[in-house]
Amino acid sequence: MTATWTAKLSELGIELPNVAAPVAAYVPATKVGNQVWTSGQLPLIDGALPATGKVGAEVSEEDAYGYARQAALNAIAAVDALVGVDNIARVLKIVGFVASDPSFTGQPAVINGASDLMKEVFGDAGEHARSAVGVAVLPMDTPVEVELVVELKEDA
Q1: What superfamily would CATH give domain 44-152?
Q2: Which top EC class is named for this enzyme in its record (predicted)?
Q3: What is the mean pLDDT of residues 40-48?
Q4: Please, what is the end-to-end C-alpha distance for the chain in angstroms?
């Protein structure tokens, strides 16, 4: 077992990005008791979306999987900036939104990008409840948005 989540991220070659600046009136993450809830995170890379459009039309399911992974990484970064990633005890829930073409029904496979990342980084502590929701449109025409809820260690 890896000593810390920071060490695990390093072992996996994953570097947490800078926290994305909010695009409206909210904070990236908030601590409530022994939990941290993130705002919806977009798959921003260096402040820009890698793609726009609907999954199943302009965006492939495979690409959207990667965008869900990036959005989840941005959510981890928001938790890290607030309380430190090493204070995470476990992942409780992911809510994933997929901007979908009306005929697209593969939202669960897309949000697996976020879920698989949690399992990869946090192992058994990354197992979580989840919702994968298809929607007509998301902010900035992003294909995916991910929210994360984590439980903190007792001394965090």
Answers
A1: RutC-like (3.30.1330.40)
A2: hydrolase
A3: 95
A4: 21
